[in-house]
Amino acid sequence: MKVASGMLALLCALGRVEAQEGEFQKQALQKFHDTFDSATAKDDDKAAAIVQLAQLKTPATAKALVPVLTKSAVPFRMVAARELAQFKGVSGASDALLSALRSQSNLNDKARSVRILALRGLGDLQARDAAGDVEKLLEDRNEWIAKAAIDAAGKIRARSSVAALLVAFRRIEGPEGKNEISVNPLEAELPPTSLQGILKEERGRTKPVSSRDLLREPVLGALKSITCQEFATLRDWETWWRKSKSGFTVPE
Fold first, then answer.
1. Per-residue pLDDT tens digits for 44-91
2. How far apart are CA 78 and CA 89, in angstroms?
3. CA–CA dist 30, 156 (Å, integer)
4. Residues 94/130, Cβ–Cβ less than 8 Å
5. With b meaning 16 or more CB within 10 Å and e meaning fewer, what string describes 98-113?
6. What is the CATH number for 155?
7. Residues 6 or more apart from 34 whose CB is under 8 A from it?
8. Which residue in 7, 43, 198, 228 has its CB near the most CB atoms, within 10 A?
9. Are residues 48 and 194 in contact, defined by beta-carbon separation less than 8 angstroms?
10. What's the whole-number mean pLDDT along residues 22-30?
11. 54 lies in a domain?
């Protein structure tokens, strides 16, 4: 009898905790919308509202940020994408970033920075269901998007990415690898204060001269991450893959 009473008390206590958490989440979402949807709120306040909401890493929070990723001003999309990259293990987070990557609103040149951060986030979340989308961008005409896709592929570690990375490797080892690098979209942005960290990080990187300079090492790193093999040249990688691909599985 005492055991049953104790279990009942525990269940009641857990119910109260869940109710409190639900109420806290509801208040956090309302506070976010009160600021972000306000016509009079300053841009920095709106960016801060995204960051504040993202401290609560729940499926409801990820869902609430989907419209921000696709319908708000580009700097706010960048903030949301960067925050969602930290939602590892949270249902809906990778879906939110995939929606940003696929959205027509992010396919124009002005929104390249959003796609880059979405790709980085999918990599950080190790989103296996995003592997196909990532592989399609390994040879994107914009080198910075291609690099973000390469880096993401190395973190997601899907078997299908090996062949796709070798195709990208072959391209950059050819004449196209000599192409000059375009301006980094993340440097070209004029973001609100809360994005200065992104800007500082990008400006601190070594400046590559050509596509090959930018992409060769990331491709090699991604291939090594997925296969646990290490070769220095495209020829050696292709030779190994021809011999190994039929029975290859991604090592743990």
1. 999 999 999 999 999 999 999 999 999 999 999 999 999 999 999 999
2. 21
3. 34
4. yes
5. bbbbebeebeeeebbb
6. 1.25.10
7. none
8. 198
9. yes
10. 88
11. yes
CA dihedral 109, 110, 116, 121 (to 10 degrees): -140
Q: How many residues does the chain have?
A: 252
Residue type present at position 84: L
Q: Residue ranges of the alpha helices (H) in 37-159?
A: 43-53, 59-71, 74-84, 93-102, 112-124, 131-136, 143-156
Cβ(54)–Cβ(82) below 8 Å: no
**Residue the block writes with tokens 């990557």:** 101
| Total-model pTM | 0.83
pLDDT at 133: 98
**Domain tally for the chain?**
1
Residue 24 lies in a domain: no
Question: How much of the chain exceeds pLDDT 70, in percent?
Answer: 83
